[in-house]
Design brief:
It catalyses: pyranose + acceptor = pyranos-2,3-diulose + reduced acceptor; pyranose + acceptor = pyranos-3-ulose + reduced acceptor; a pyranoside + acceptor = a pyranosid-3,4-diulose + reduced acceptor; a pyranoside + acceptor = a pyranosid-3-ulose + reduced acceptor. With 572 residues, this protein is of the alpha/beta class. The protein is built from 13 helices and 26 strands. It starts with a strand and ends with a helix. The structure holds flavin-adenine dinucleotide.
Length: 572
């Protein structure tokens, strides 16, 4: 059941208290309540996702920023971005960031997961070992327009029975799609057609896949917290309630089974505590998980002590290693005269938008049933000569991408949403007060490592090579200002520093490490180091960011983590 005040909660002993009903938290809530004797409480800071139009309609993804479903964070001034402060959206509500994200479904490369296994000395985090979980969360669903998808994906690498619906684009854009696929054929090499970028080898040009089905967004909340799951008598979801700290239990040893929370909105709001009989599971995401840990005195001893917070566990890696993908748009002017797309103006002309809304309401189809105009993505590597002994390759292996180009177009422009997906830069999440209501200091450190700029320049030059293919000859005008032909390195550095944003894929701020390692925050079983009772399950535990948009990996990791928890309590 759903509650909004802790006073209404039933008088039961909660075996598990999950902090954050986001992407990972929803997976855990579902899987742990499959065991009827487990009583599970989820505490989520934000509201319910149910019935919220902008969260349901894929085409309205850009309406969500700055709403009640966004934490409305900004970064610290970014040195690598000419000291610009940028927005840093995070989901606030059931489903967390999966309720607000861009729905792009990409798993990354097999070597990303093999690197997880290698650096944590835990073989069960490898791609091969994770295969059951790679499929368990997913149900591949035909696109809403019912077109033949035979050459657009490989059904053998997809799940068919999981809670999360995935699909292929439906609002096809033939004049762009045909040229994209022709380019892959004409140039091959880095841009060769890849039938399915989610096979473990993403490299090349392939059809984009999204977490949507039957015209609607599929999020951790719609998928894992369906009406039937919410009705389970052992699942209790407390909304609009913020966890302020996790408290050390009294008695010998270092155990953390108590959460402190409030439904108030400020530092003096009355706080309540509840203690889990088995575990607290922290799933507040890569930004708020370290924020809660630091406010609880779990983190670098000197840093927290300086702020007047009692240090209860000295773990210097908390909040370190923030890894994020820098994102930049690169645009070319086109002149397509045979464009027959009736929905070209859907987000520009209000009359067309209203027609699209009416169509979506009536049929859950039409242009709003799909995410904008993005039909294909290119994943590629920079030349090996970019690296040497002093400048090592930051990617996880030779089947991993360094950069991504999500290419969409209209009759007049071709836009690549480009990103460095194996970055070398690292940042931090920290705090500057003892008030848990103060926002975290988010420093993703974008472009602080020169190598990321080098790779970004190379990706822009790769896009120039891409649009130089014969397929574009009759329609390409040239780069859109301020971009110019044959740009110098200096020009591109300025362009990148002045225009880049965060791709909103933060990971690594509570990273896992081998059980005996002095660094890291959690062990490979995701239990907090040097303590008991507290597990962390969300994107913060990744030691490295995958070369992918990060939601698929959160589903994979959380599904496996649910089994790790069940095994620890003897029910698997
Ligand atoms: C705008 C946006 C676009 C994105 N686009 C894509 C995309 O297209 N494809 C993709 O794969 N990935 C995308 N991502 C990234 C992806 O959604 C995330 O990596 C993933 O959902 C993170 O899951 P998580 O469980 O770690 O955290 P979240 O899903 O963010 O969950 C954390 C939850 O904890 C709650 N919480 C935090 N602090 C507290 C507290 N103190 N008390 C109680 N509750 C708390 C939050 O409200 C939230 O519900 C995007 C993210 C955003 C924000």
């Amino acid at each position: 059941a759903i509650y909004r005040r802790s006073e209404g909660l039933p008088d039961v002993t909660f075996d598990f208290i999950i902090v954050g009903g986001g992407t990972a938290g929803s997976v855990l809530a579902n899987r742990l309540t499959e065991i009827p004797q487990f009583q599970v409480l989820v505490i989520e800071a934000g509201p319910d996702n149910e019935g919220v139009f902008d969260l349901m309609v894929p085409g309205f993804v850009f309406n969500i920023a700055n709403s009640a479903f966004d934490w409305n964070f900004t970064t610290t001034p970014q040195k690598g971005l000419n000291d610009r402060i940028i927005t840093f959206e995070r989901g606030h509500g059931l489903g967390g960031s999966s309720s607000v994200n861009g729905m792009i479904y990409t798993r990354g490369s097999s070597s990303d997961y093999d690197r997880f296994a290698r650096v944590t000395a835990e073989p069960t985090w490898s791609w091969d070992a994770l295969q059951p979980y790679v499929r368990k969360h997913e149900s591949f669903t035909p696109p809403v327009d019912g077109h033949n998808t035979a050459n657009e994906f490989d059904p053998r690498v997809h799940g068919t029975n999981g809670p999360i619906l995935t699909t292929l684009p439906a609002l096809l854009n033939p004049s762009i799609d045909s040229r994209m696929l022709a380019t892959a054929n004409q140039l091959k090499g880095d841009f060769v057609f890849n039938l399915d970028m989610n096979s473990g080898t993403p490299l090349g040009t392939g059809w984009q896949q999204a977490t949507a089905g039957h015209g609607e967004r599929s999020s951790a909340a719609t998928g894992y917290l369906s009406a039937a799951v919410r009705a389970r008598p052992n699942l209790h979801i407390l909304l609009e309630t913020r966890v302020t700290r996790i408290l050390k239990s009294s008695g010998p040893g270092t155990a953390f089974r108590t959460v402190e929370f409030t439904s108030g909105a400020g530092p003096s709001s009355p706080r309540t505590t509840l203690t889990a009989a088995k575990e607290v599971i922290l799933s507040a995401g890569s930004i708020m998980t370290p924020h809660i840990l630091l406010h609880s005195g779990i983190g670098d001893k000197q840093t927290v002590s300086k702020l007047g917070i009692d240090s209860v566990l000295d773990l210097p890696s908390v909040g370190m290693n923030l890894t994020e993908h820098p994102f930049f748009a690169v645009t070319f002017d086109l002149n397509i005269t045979d464009d027959t797309d009736p929905w070209g103006e859907v987000f520009i002309d209000p009359t067309v938008t209203n027609e699209a809304i009416a169509l979506w309401n009536a049929t859950q189809g039409g242009p709003l049933a799909t995410i904008g105009r993005l039909d294909q993505i290119v994943w590629a590597r920079v030349p090996p000569s970019t690296f040497n002994d002093n400048v090592p390759d930051p990617s996880s292996g030779s089947n991993s991408a360094h950069y991504e180009m999500g290419i969409s177009g209209t009759a007049t422009s071709l836009i690549s949403g480009s990103s460095i997906v194996s970055p070398a830069s690292r940042g931090t999440v920290s705090i500057n007060s003892s008030n848990p209501f103060d926002p975290p200091l988010i420093d993703p450190g974008l472009f602080t490592n020169e190598l990321d700029l080098t790779m970004a320049r190379e990706s822009i030059r790769a896009l120039f090579r891409f649009v130089a293919a014969p397929a574009w000859k009759d329609v390409l005008i040239g780069p859109t200002a301020p971009l110019v032909n044959n740009p110098t390195d200096e020009f591109l550095n300025d362009f990148l520093r002045n225009t880049s944003f965060a791709n909103l894929h933060p990971t690594g701020t509570a990273m896992m490490s081998p059980a005996n390692a002095q660094w890291g925050v959690v062990n490979p079983d995701l239990l907090l180091k040097k303590a008991s009772g507290l597990r962390i399950i969300d994107a913060s535990v990744y030691p490295f960011v995958p070369c992918a948009h990060t939601q698929a990996s959160v589903y994979i990791i959380s599904e496996r983590a649910a089994d790790v928890v069940k095994a620890a309590w003897g029910v698997l």
